[in-house]
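Appendix C: a fully annotated inverse folding record. The material below is reproduced so that readers can follow the format used throughout the book. The structure is listed first as tokens, followed by the designed sequence.
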């Protein structure tokens, strides 16, 4: 292998390790420094150090430990500089001692209230002083390690818009003196909706990756599920927390059936249902039942009810599409989201015929949020194919493939476009 090839391979390794380790690094440093934006800055310095040293020295046997040690050394240097500056100004030692005497045991309080380091960070990033949109973007970028592009895809917004939100949110968090903290009582409730949104978006990125060569990122799904289970314990009377857990459990139950041995996607109606995890389905249905007992009928509870219709159907033909279309209508009235309407179009197309579904899709054609959303063309192409309008289906599917960021989705859409082209040629 050439030197350039070695450097390229090392660079890819560094980025892969970084993607896995970044959340853990920020979590550890934030606990040391009580300052989330500063923790994020110092982890970035550790990444730069790896990019500088590893191409020359090789990737360490324990790259995560190397990054952690480097980041902590920088954090200690920062603390030492702070202490030196404090000594020059005098009085600080006395102030610190008095503050410590008056200060409650934050670590114990954090453990009592939340009991999960990652969730504490997400609650910190979801402070009410930040806008709702900025809270989620900041948490996903800094704490959960998603790229700006992945976050933009989740919100169906341009990358520069998301980047600006993150910069402004970090500035607000730093300048306002809002340090690493745990909310209590009403403060916790006030942030809970944003925290649920963040955890759900983490799961979605793991369930269908925005970019890359693999459709799934199972580690993200498992992390989101773990946090969702913790959330139901700290907010046991919140139906949406149970609804979100139900939604994740039911979706995750299909993970083993969503790709073939080569990693290629398998569509829902073509999946081998014997591979669905029945234990996970039972857990999901139990969480949904609990949400309903609590009077839940919100965003996550309705979505979980939709996925439950699939989970309870023994075969694809047994799916209650009319029930699903009704639930999507309720969800659409609640959320006012073009993506929900697009999903409703699929359900209506199955329940009432592809023409009815296509009418809904065509009504979404000029939605700004869906302009670069590949699934709009994917759904439209599928409905056109079912109607025998194969050439139009080919055009829609090829356009969708060009918009898809994930290689597996691109290839699937290209195959479906080729099938439509073959069907058109036979007419």
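Designed amino acids, in order:
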């Amino acid at each position: 292998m050439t030197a350039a090839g070695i450097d390229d391979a090392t660079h890819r390794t560094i980025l892969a390790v970084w993607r896995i380790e970044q959340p853990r690094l920020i979590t550890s440093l934030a606990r040391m420094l009580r300052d989330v934006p500063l923790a994020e800055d110092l982890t970035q310095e550790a990444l730069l150090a790896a990019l500088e040293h590893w191409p020359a020295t090789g990737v360490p046997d324990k790259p995560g430990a190397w990054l952690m040690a480097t980041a902590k050394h920088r954090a200690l240097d920062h603390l030492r500089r702070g202490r030196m500056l404090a000594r020059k100004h005098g009085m600080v030692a006395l102030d610190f001692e008095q503050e410590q005497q008056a200060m409650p045991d934050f670590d114990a309080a954090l453990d009592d209230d939340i009991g999960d380091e990652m969730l504490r960070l997400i609650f910190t990033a979801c402070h009410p002083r930040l806008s709702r949109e900025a809270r989620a973007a900041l948490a996903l970028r800094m704490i959960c390690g998603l790229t700006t592009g992945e976050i933009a895809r989740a919100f169906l917004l341009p990358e520069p818009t998301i980047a600006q939100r993150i910069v402004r949110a970090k500035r607000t968090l730093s300048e306002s003196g809002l340090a690493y903290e745990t909310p209590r009582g009403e403060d916790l409730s006030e942030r809970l909706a944003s925290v649920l949104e963040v955890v759900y978006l983490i799961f979605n990125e793991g369930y269908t990756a925005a970019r890359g060569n693999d459709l799934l990122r199972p580690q993200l799904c498992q992390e989101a599920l773990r946090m969702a289970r913790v959330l139901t314990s700290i907010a046991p009377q919140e139906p949406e927390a149970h609804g979100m857990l139900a939604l994740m459990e039911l979706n995750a139950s299909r993970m083993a059936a969503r790709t073939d041995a080569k990693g290629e996607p398998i569509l829902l109606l073509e999946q081998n249902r014997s591979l669905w995890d029945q234990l996970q389905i039972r857990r999901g249905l139990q969480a949904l039942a609990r949400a309903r007992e609590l009077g839940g009928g919100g965003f996550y509870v309705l979505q979980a009810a939709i996925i439950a219709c699939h989970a309870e159907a023994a075969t694809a033909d047994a799916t209650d599409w009319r029930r699903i279309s009704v639930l999507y209508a309720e969800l659409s009235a609640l959320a006012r989201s073009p993506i929900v309407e697009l999903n409703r179009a699929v359900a209506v197309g199955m329940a009432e015929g592809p023409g009815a579904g296509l009418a809904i899709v065509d009504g979404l054609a000029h939605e700004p949020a869906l302009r670069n959303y590949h699934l709009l063309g994917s759904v439209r192409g599928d409905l056109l194919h079912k109607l025998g309008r194969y050439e139009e289906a080919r055009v829609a599917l090829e356009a969708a493939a060009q918009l898809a960021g994930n290689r597996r989705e691109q290839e699937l859409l290209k195959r479906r476009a080729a099938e439509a082209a073959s069907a058109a040629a036979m007419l």
